[in-house]
């Protein structure tokens, strides 16, 4: 299935950045001309997961087992494996642990237990049908003119709102300060009254949009620098994605970098072969480490750019508040890079 029908189309509308209190549009950021070789597609991550899942299951015929939680990992000299909640153990040549910020495999790789640490921020987020927005004259414009994307930038907070699929669906996120520590749940049902309080003094249109929301979640943002070790001491278990390098949403790169991890590790395993799994995993980390560290920093810099905005500077140069779109990030070909880097990294002792 093509991803384009599921993606937001902003070629005409662009990204409109508003001043938080007046609602003034200070910048309309246009998307670069589309590159047919590397199209930029934005949409709902769950729908992307579904497309990839169906392709793996139906086209590649990969067996996928759902509803079987992994409770532990183990490693031996000749392999690795997982233990399921029902007690079964499954042996393998290699284990790729993409088990998120609360990764159980990370404890095995690091040889100590590490508690997730809050970044000091959380996001309220929601995705819902845009019917109520269409029915309200104050918000109808966001549903009648194709896809839209708007952002309100305020003091230590920002509110992003978009409509997608021709204005049929809507989503918003509000990044806000969060002083509570990570506990057993880092995703909780959100309360509209808390959002309204955070939006006091903001452009009234923000509250009008939020009022249409049937439900929302309050999601703690976990951040840490990329771990020094991505691969277990036995060289048979590797961490991938948020398990090893969680990103802030302001990087707009969390899912993308996890996919780059996947491409890289697949090429390393294919090129190294079954007899050199440990070598392949070490090469994967070496290829990815510095790039991931650099991309992670963009999330911090963009958050600070928006949350500590100098509005006098923006008045002189509206482009100063634009969402950064770095060519070195967006034009990177992970597959090509892994293929080219493989030979140079294949050296004695790796």
TrEMBL record:
One of its GO terms (molecular function) is FAD binding. Residues 87-297 form the FAD-binding domain. It comes from the Eukaryota. Keywords: FAD, Flavoprotein, Monooxygenase, Oxidoreductase. Gene3D superfamilies: FAD/NAD(P)-binding domain (3.50.50.60). PANTHER family: MONOOXYGENASE. Belongs to the paxM FAD-dependent monooxygenase family. This is FAD binding domain-containing protein. It comes from Colletotrichum gloeosporioides (strain Cg-14) (Anthracnose fungus).
């Amino acid at each position: 299935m093509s991803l384009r029908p599921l993606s937001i189309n902003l070629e005409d509308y662009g990204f409109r950045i508003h001043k938080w209190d007046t609602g003034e549009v200070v910048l309309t950021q246009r998307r670069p001309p589309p590159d047919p070789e590397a199209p930029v597609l934005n949409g709902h991550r769950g729908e992307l997961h579904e497309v990839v899942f169906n392709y793996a299951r139906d086209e590649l015929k990969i067996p996928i087992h759902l509803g079987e939680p992994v409770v532990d990992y183990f490693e031996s000299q000749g392999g690795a494996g997982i233990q399921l909640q029902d007690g079964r153990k499954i042996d393998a040549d290699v284990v790729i642990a993409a088990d998120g910020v609360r990764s159980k495999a990370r404890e095995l790789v690091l040889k100590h237990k590490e508690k997730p640490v809050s970044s000091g921020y959380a996001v309220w987020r929601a995705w819902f049908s845009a019917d109520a927005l269409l029915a309200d004259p104050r918000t109808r414009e966001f549903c009648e003119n194709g896809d839209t994307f708007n952002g309100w930038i305020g003091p230590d907070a920002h509110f992003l709102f978009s409509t997608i699929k021709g204005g049929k669906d809507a989503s918003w996120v509000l990044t806000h300060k969060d002083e509570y520590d990570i506990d057993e749940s880092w995703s909780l049902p959100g309360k509209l009254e808390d959002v309204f309080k955070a939006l006091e003094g903001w452009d009234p249109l923000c509250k009008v949009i939020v009022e249409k929301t049937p439900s929302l979640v309050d999601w703690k943002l976990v951040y840490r620098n990329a771990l020094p070790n991505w691969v277990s001491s036995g060289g048979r278990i590797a961490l991938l994605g948020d398990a090893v390098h969680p990103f802030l949403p302001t990087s707009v790169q969390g899912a993308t970098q996890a996919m780059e991890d996947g491409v890289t590790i697949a090429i390393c395993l294919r090129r190294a072969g079954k007899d050199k799994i440990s070598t392949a995993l070490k090469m994967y980390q070496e290829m990815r480490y510095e790039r991931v560290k650099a991309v992670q920093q963009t999330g911090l810099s963009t958050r600070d750019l928006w949350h500590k905005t100098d509005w006098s500077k923006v008045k002189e140069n509206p482009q100063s508040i634009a969402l950064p779109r770095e060519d070195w990030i967006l034009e990177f070909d992970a597959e090509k890079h892994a293929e080219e880097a493989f030979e140079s990294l294949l050296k004695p002792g790796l």
